[in-house]
């Protein structure tokens, strides 16, 4: 077995040192009636690299690959081009095969990356501080709601109808057990976001208002008035960003007054990967830092006075506080945070701004092309790279039709909100820098064929 | 010297000791040391006008950003590609990884990460597919999830599994929420989860996060759960127990089945923390020990990389009693087709699910890696893995017990890790010094000060992917370091001397947190 270095002679010598006759003797603490002897049933035997590759290639080959065809899906996971050097660098063994940096003298690489990552995220989101990352956007969103409860000592959270339905679903599952009271609604096919409603509804019992920016239908609004009204009520404004590339073009939530900004960082540096692993982004105002969940990296000095970095404020965390911790979280999404940070460093501010403008311009061109198809309407007046298309037919069926023509055309709202008939003709279309003019041509002409 | 009750130094003055390293005769003008080069922060070396990415021309289009254009400078420095590669390559050399050497971090299972796993995870058919693609277009992805699920269910002897939890602690939460759902379903409002005092900190944190009160169960002198104390505490208010098996002392809980039976008789459920599953794969099935839920750290037992702190992956296996409450979504095979059971169709036959824990389906990139690892080993190889892991750990235990106090060694063999205490060190010398001494000798330190039940704990987990020679070398080095700690060698107290940094001041970092870079900080 290629990963196991012990030889039969080694094993014999080691057993002699231990004073055991057989390796099975080492397992005598396992009650005899439960101990397995002999081979494991129902599983195949070991296999060569070649044989394993063949099997995995076979499975991979059963999937339609985004890069092989016109592709317009988004809704919380976005296909951007990731520069080759990102994947090369994250595969350096010193990053890939390192552990959590609990021995900082030999983990300065990971720690400096986390410090840089935290700074990048804080600046992108317009916040004072950011943590070293969370599992993903949906869990970061729930942790933010819990954090707002801790800070305000209130239990009622208002979730915008424009919040990703999976994020709402995660929060609802958790709130059932924690006793948090969540108010949420299904989005309406309206040009406007529900910010005006949220401003109306927020009150003295509200712990937080959670608003996605741009929202699930691609719409966006200035959050300034909402932030002011929310804070006036003694509540926190939590902004959720599922497409961080947008912040190269539009104002950051922090700039507009959000108290906590969370997001999904997958767009930058991390590929689609069928939904994971991704990287949750989490930032907030300085005054709330000790209520933050998750790992934090901080600057310090070593015994010779040289700058160095360590994990810090760990008195918030489970390994010190046990049942009194701010969260049970014990990990971050280190390698994905590294990928995010490398890609952001390659882009730099100029690259990020250009990338954002490119996405936006391509999306405008595509939206205009689609709106010229008879019976097709674009819901949004404003959007970044994702917008809602209203079709004259059931959008879920249209998406299947398109897939059968080797076009991955968008995410139907029927997939996200299966119970809502009012949304059944709507489809989210995302256009990033990876979409070519020919891809848009193909989508337009295929829709032309499918639609009555 | 100030220490906590496990003997870990907590004050920075402990580390500000005479210098032997870079300020002495070996100092360089730059601070660089041959292959180890100091590296600035990107905020010091980069520029907001520099970029390492060339993009195509931007088509003409009138902005539709609704007046939200970002005008202020963001402050994100860029580097060219060449500088970027160099920046991260230099930083990488400040890190210790499994690829470099022996990494015996107890309870963390730092085994070799096969590169075939990485290659397979990057096949476009897995890496470049969207989680919301039409289901007919991702049948191969669902099949990966289903095949991995089958392996895990077979190895654990459990009938059901939730694949979506993102990490071990997230899996714990999944299991505890399923237990709470099952109790709610029968109208039983139990409030307490029992956790052994040797448990990992995530266990009590998870139970509390799920709304439970946490009570400690003591350990016996042999390092195992005190069965009598546990049974005495059971009652109508106890929702369940969270037990790690093999436990954090590196021992198998011999009474596991008795514990499970007693908890079940009292109307509760048994959660098993599967962090140490690597010791028992193919040797015993948790399902045969009465476990109701157990998470499996794919990043430990099944070799997916730790990545400097995640991403992990923590699928949870369930007993039949908890199966109806497992979270959404999951993959189901219907004839030749794989279907996703999610919010939309859960009503039909999974109406009692406690709901969704994450967006999408979990850590697909880790599923492909773990499945690749399992296929490589096969059933026979996985059994050999556990046997070699346990053999290596016992070999370490017997090779060091004459110089280090091994509090539980007299009671028999250990499983996958060997536990020692700091007993017998010279005045002022601690486990931390041993760890820093190992750094100088080119080894990653063991887990220190955990579990809390042993003073100055040193938990050593070699894993099966270490050779006898590598272990002998480590044991030899550690014996020298222990001798230095016993004799009170001042050089050890100031270690590490040869790492990129000397001991770091954690107290300063916590007292005045600097969590982001500020351009003005040098000027102040």
Polypeptide structure, described:
The complex is a heterodimer of chains A (452) and B (524). Helices cover 37% and strands 12% of the residues of chain A. Chain A has two domains: 66-81 and 348-450, Alpha-Beta Complex (Aspartate Aminotransferase, domain 1); 84-343, Aspartate Aminotransferase, domain 2, CATH 3.40.640.10. Chain A is built from 14 helices and 13 strands. The relative contact order of chain A is 0.15. Chain B is α/β, with parallel strands linked by helices. Among the domains of chain B are: 40-52 and 75-93, no CATH class; 144-372, Aspartate Aminotransferase, domain 2 (3-Layer(aba) Sandwich), CATH 3.40.640. Chain B has helices at 42-45, 81-92, 115-121, 124-127, 139-156, 168-185, 202-209, 227-233, 256-265, 343-349, 364-400, 431-440, 468-487, 490-493, 506-511, and strands at 160-162, 192-196, 213-217, 238-244, 269-273, 293-295, 316-318, 330-334, 337-341, 418-420, 447-448, 458-460. Chain B has a seven-stranded mixed sheet, sandwiched between helices. In chain B, strands 10-12-11 form a three-stranded antiparallel sheet. In chain B, strands 8-9 form a two-stranded antiparallel ribbon. Chains A and B meet through helix 1, helix 2, helix 3, helix 4 and helix 5 of A and helix 2, helix 3, helix 4, helix 5 and helix 6 of B.
**Cα distance, first to last residue of chain A?**
60 Å
Sheet/helix structural class of chain B: alpha/beta
Strand order of the largest sheet of chain A: 1-7-6-5-4-2-3
* Count of strand segments of chain A: 13
Task: Give a concise summary.
Chain A has 452 residues and is α/β, with parallel strands linked by helices.
Summarize this structure as a short list of keywords or feature phrases.
heterodimer; A: 452 residues; alpha/beta; Aspartate Aminotransferase, domain 1; Aspartate Aminotransferase, domain 2; 2 domains; 4-stranded antiparallel beta sheet; globular; B: 7-stranded mixed beta sheet; 3-stranded antiparallel beta sheet; 15 helices; 33% helix; 9% strand
